[in-house]
Design a protein that fits this description.
Chain B: This is pyruvate dehydrogenase (acetyl-transferring). Chain B: It comes from Riccia sorocarpa. Chain B: One of its GO terms (molecular function) is pyruvate dehydrogenase (acetyl-transferring) activity. The complex is a heterodimer. Chain A is α/β, with parallel strands linked by helices. Chain A contains 15 helices and twelve strands. In chain A, the strands form four sheets. In chain A, strands 5-11-12-8-7-6 form a six-stranded parallel beta sheet, sandwiched between helices. Chain A has a two-stranded antiparallel ribbon with strand order 1-2. In chain A, strands 3-4 form a two-stranded antiparallel sheet. Chain A starts with a helix and ends in an 11-residue tail after the last helix. In chain A, 44% of the residues are buried. About 9% of the residues of chain A have low confidence. By secondary structure, chain B is of the alpha/beta class. Chain B has two domains: 272 residues, Thiamin diphosphate (ThDP)-binding fold, Pyr/PP domains (Rossmann fold), CATH 3.40.50; 129 residues, Rossmann fold (3-Layer(aba) Sandwich), CATH 3.40.50.920. The N and C termini of chain B lie far apart (50 Å). The N terminus of chain B is likely disordered. Classes of the chains: A alpha/beta, B alpha/beta.
């Protein structure tokens, strides 16, 4: 067989429709043909093993030469398994549990808000001020709503205290049309995209104007208009959803990214592992943003994993990862922006671990002083708050001052309280909303059940609430 | 459409939904979504298309408008007593898994947002060859091979559905979808409701279930029992190539999440099906054999056992009415009710376990609605509450056999 014919045949056999990026070239040395691969680990598609067998059987080579084939000349003897192409070793040695050092944490500002390094993003006054104002709004919102729950005005609330900087910085770095699949501690993304304070209040109160029509818990927001997918309480289930959205976005070819948030505790769920693995195999543009805030209700991060946190898992799945100081808004902004670009340009997932601290309790059903030191909480509030750090940076630029701070806080607080009062005054969703949207139209059995409920209400109206329209 | 035809259509399909029949009569039923309704009794197709001015918030990319009405103006509904005939003129013969494949292929050709995902559905063509040739025809992306994580790929399909695709999830065996239970119940079933109607999940979950031939306990599960309680899901079971193709197409077109139960031993069932396009109504039961002595309600593989028993029963002079309920959630109480009013005796034959099976729910539903029409307690033949054993004879003992059906009917009719 002429060498060029053989080479073309080899290339034709090697080319598979789903790995167009596999660049192969064929070299000849005497009677042996060497296939050189750009990426030696082609075998993730099962290509390597079957390729070699077919190549050599079509050229009439013996079985022995199959075992001694090389990808490159002069390389060590390698074994082509269908799982991977790997070098042999004669040393019995286990890979160590951890790398010599943990993945370092990227930051741009010092604890006091001083610029460090060379990668400080150029935000501009308007953007920086907007970011800060939204962080403050989030703080005030959390504070008022938490207290409202304590007063019995609604059933449940969970704050994102300590993570406001992270919330807003992530939101600002994404595009408004990127699909977001949150866990429940990321209302900042909604706020950034234009979800109004009144809408937050309506949802938490559960009145008829809430977007969830009173069906989902407080803080489990959702807005299809703002591409913020309704939160489901079960941890980690949003991670594969984000991958599915990434799959859909890749088909659209619109350079949008799919983003999902989760805590370090939720990253222990099976869905995290399945989701990240899928995203890597499918090559879809997804950002996996982990808020490592140190606590999963009462379980500290030290009991949640033994490896190098969440960022340390990325490489095992073949996913690029980075660890960032989550309380450094500028660092988060830079990292998320860069990650998003990577994801969208290369159609690949990126894993980000944002290190932060959950200052507040897990929720209104929790008292964290029972399982952690009050001194620890105080330390993070007073010395390592992300909002304060960003404010210091703003003030150092001359873009913010104490008067503006006082005025803005006063204004936002009044707004939030007014919205809450207005939300409480509105009616709850009507009875028909109990039965609608279970399916696309109300089926016969549900219509019958609705009739039964109405009959019960008609018989004993005094037992039923007056703010639910019939 | 002429009002007279509208009335005929309404009388045949009134069972499906109040809003549908009202529509057929030309009334305004307020905001309703896309509806397509097909008369199946004579295999002729009568389509009524309905919509509102506004579509659901996140329903598909902008290229949507794929419902084309196909109106056969001389369609005639048969009488309620007449069976759905299988002797169609022309048509082509195929096996049930090929009918599923045909339905799936037609929908994928028609609508570019329809995708299939699951283990080995791509180049391998599916464990039961339902997606054979799809990867070559539609590409690797639309016939997607997933790694082995049922909860994750079901979750992936939910996410894809919420962003405008219509995914079909194939479970290699229905039993494996227990790993996906969380995504199916908490997300598939509930997200449309909890999001206040903002996000729809038009997905189809399908796969082979039921007791096979010595497949062992984990591969012989009847998941319809477990899923029937989940709000927001629709469940249908196919039993012949005709209804397999029709239900597959209808499920894909539905905006609700639908679980399509196939049976592992029915994939090689052969039948002649029509050449022209048709879909079956998801909420409708199928009248297999009209009769007057007793109503036998069944679905999936048991339908064929019931038909086998019916041969003997008929030769002994009995006249059973056999209905394949097809729609497991919600039940077609209209067809079932009319039958009960006629025969006054009901026997349910199912493969589910005694406790918490479809039969248990169906019994309750019939008793609640048609108690006055019953002359006898509702009989129910089901499998025992045991895991299905591997050993052949033991396995056979857990599945209802034709002779048991015959005995049960004789006993019921002799009292």
């Amino acid at each position: 067989m002429a060498s060029s014919v053989a080479a073309r045949k080899l290339l034709r056999i090697a080319r598979k429709p789903w790995s167009p990026s596999a660049a192969l070239s064929v070299k000849r040395s005497g009677s042996k043909y060497f296939v050189e691969a750009e990426d030696p680990d082609l075998c993730r598609t099962g290509l390597g093993g079957s390729l070699f067998f077919r190549l050599f059987s079509s050229l009439g080579a013996s079985h022995d030469s199959l075992l001694h084939c090389n990808y490159e000349e002069n390389a060590e003897q390698r074994a082509a398994f269908s799982g991977a192409t790997i070098a042999y070793t004669e040393d019995l040695q286990f890979v160590s549990k951890l790398l010599p050092s943990r993945i370092p944490c990227f930051r741009v500002l010092s604890e006091l808000g001083k610029e460090l390094g060379k990668d400080v993003p150029q935000l501009g006054r308007t953007m920086a001020q907007k970011m800060y104002e939204q962080m403050v709004t989030l703080q005030v919102l959390d504070n008022v709503f938490y207290n409202a729950q304590r007063q019995g005005r609604f059933a449940f609330y969970a704050t994102c205290t300590g993570e406001e900087a992270l919330n807003i910085a992530c939101a600002a770095a994404l595009n408004d049309t990127d699909t977001v699949f949150p866990q429940y501690r990321e209302p900042g993304v909604l706020l950034w995209r234009g979800y109004g304070l009144q809408e937050f209040a309506d949802h938490c109160i559960g009145n008829y104007q809430g977007h969830g029509k009173g069906r989902q818990m407080s803080i489990h927001y959702g807005s299809s208009k703002l591409h913020y997918f309704t939160i489901s309480s079960v941890l980690g289930t949003q991670i594969p959803h984000a991958v599915g959205a990434g799959y859909s976005l890749k088909m659209e070819n619109e350079k949008r990214c799919s983003v999902t948030f989760f805590g370090e505790g939720a990253a222990s769920e099976g869905d995290f592992h399945g989701g990240v693995n899928f995203a890597a195999c499918l090559e879809v543009p997804v950002l996996f943003i982990c808020r490592n805030n140190g606590w999963a209700i009462s379980t500290p991060a030290s009991q949640q994993y033994r490896g190098d946190g969440i960022a340390g898992r990325g490489q095992a799945y073949g996913v690029r990862s980075i660890r960032v100081d989550g309380n450094d808004a500028l660092a988060v902004f830079s990292a998320v922006k860069a990650a998003r670009q990577l994801a969208v340009d290369n159609n690949e997932p990126v894993l980000l671990e944002l290190m932060t601290y959950r200052v507040g309790h897990h929720s209104t059903s929790d008292d964290s002083t029972k399982y952690r030191d009050v001194a620890e909480i105080r330390h993070w509030t007073e010395k390592r708050d992300g909002v304060a750090r960003f404010r210091n940076w703003l003030e150092s630029k001359g873009w913010w001052n104490k008067t503006m701070e006082e005025q803005f806080r006063w204004y936002v607080r009044a707004e939030v309280i007014a919205c809450l009062a207005a939300a409480e005054a509105k009616n709850k969703p009507p009875l028909a909303d109990l039965f609608s949207d279970v399916y696309d139209s109300v089926p016969q059995n549900l219509a019958e059940q609705e009739t039964q409920v109405r009959e019960a209400v008609r018989k004993c109206p005094e037992v039923y609430p007056t703010d639910v329209p019939l | 459409m002429a009002l007279s035809q509208g009335i005929m259509a309404a009388s045949v399909v009134d069972c499906c939904s109040r809003s549908w029949s009202a529509l057929a009569l030309g009334q305004n039923v307020g905001p309703i979504r896309w509806i397509s309704l097909i008369v199946t009794k004579t295999r002729k197709v009568l389509t009524i298309q309905a919509s509102t001015a506004e579509e659901p918030a996140s329903f598909g990319p902008s290229s949507q408008k794929l419902w084309t009405p196909k109106l056969v103006t001389n369609a005639v509904a048969t009488k309620q007593d007449a069976p759905a005939t299988t002797g169609a003129k022309g048509g082509h013969e195929l096996l049930l898994f090929e009918a599923l494949r045909e339905g799936l292929e037609e929908e994928m050709e028609r609508d570019p947002t329809v995708v299939v995902m699951g283990e080995d559905v791509g180049h391998y063509g599916g464990s039961y060859k339902v997606t054979k040739g799809f990867a070559e025809k539609f590409g690797d992306w639309r016939a997607l091979d997933t790694p082995i994580a049922e909860n994750s790929f079901t979750g992936m399909a939910v996410g894809a559905a919420m962003t405008g695709l219509r995914p079909i999830i194939e479970g290699m065996n229905m039993g494996f979808l227990l790993l996906a239970y969380n995504q199916i119940s908490n997300n598939c079933g509930m997200l449309h409701y909890t999001s206040g109607g903002q996000f729809t999940i038009p997905c189809v979950i399908r796969g082979p279930g039921g007791v096979g031939r010595q497949l062992g306990a984990e591969h012989s599960q009847r998941l319809e029992s477990y899923f029937q309680s989940v709000p927001g899901l629709q469940m249908v079971a196919c039993s012949t190539p005709y209804n397999a193709k029709g239900l597959m197409k209808a499920a894909i077109r539905s905006n609700n999440p639908v679980i399509l139960f196939e049976h592992v031993l029915l994939y090689n069932l052969k039948e002649t099906i029509p050449d022209e396009e048709y879909i079956c109504c998801l909420e409708e039961a199928e009248m297999v054999r009209p009769g007057k002595d007793v109503t036998i309600l069944t679905y999936s593989r048991m339908r064929h056992y019931v038909l086998q028993a019916a041969k003997t029963l008929v030769s002994k002079g009995y006249d059973p009415e056999i209905i394949d309920i097809r729609s497991l959630k919600p039940f077609d109480m209209y067809t079932i009710g009319n039958s009960v009013k006629k025969t006054h005796k009901v026997l349910i034959v199912e493969e589910c376990m005694r406790t918490g099976g479809i039969g248990a729910s169906l019994r309750a539903a019939i008793m609640e609605n048609f108690f006055d029409y019953l002359d006898a307690p509702i009989g129910c033949l089901s499998s025992q509450d045991v895991p299905t054993p591997y050993s052949g004879p033991l396995e056979e003992l857990t599945v209802v056999q034709p002779h048991q059906i015959i005995s049960a009917v004789e006993k019921m009719l002799s009292e």
